[in-house]
Amino acid sequence: MALAPQLIDLIVCPDDKGELWYVEGEEILYNPRMRRKYRIEEGIPVLLVEESEIVDEAEDARLRALPHTATGKG
Description:
Layout: H1 5-10, E1 21-23, E2 28-31, E3 36-41, E4 44-45, E5 53-54, H2 57-64, E6 69-70
Antiparallel strand pairs: 1-2, 1-6, 2-3, 3-4, 3-5
């Protein structure tokens, strides 16, 4: 389930308050600065730092190569 454009414009990382990358095909929001991945469950972002996942270098490279939309523009 895709996130609403209005929501994409508002979402920022709860940790560093910067933009996230919305990777629709993976149903995640990704912070490339911190290599932190937030899941999206049934169209609802789970933006809890303690529920996020820190990814390794290989996963970071894979995620950076995927198409994404930057969040937090609103």
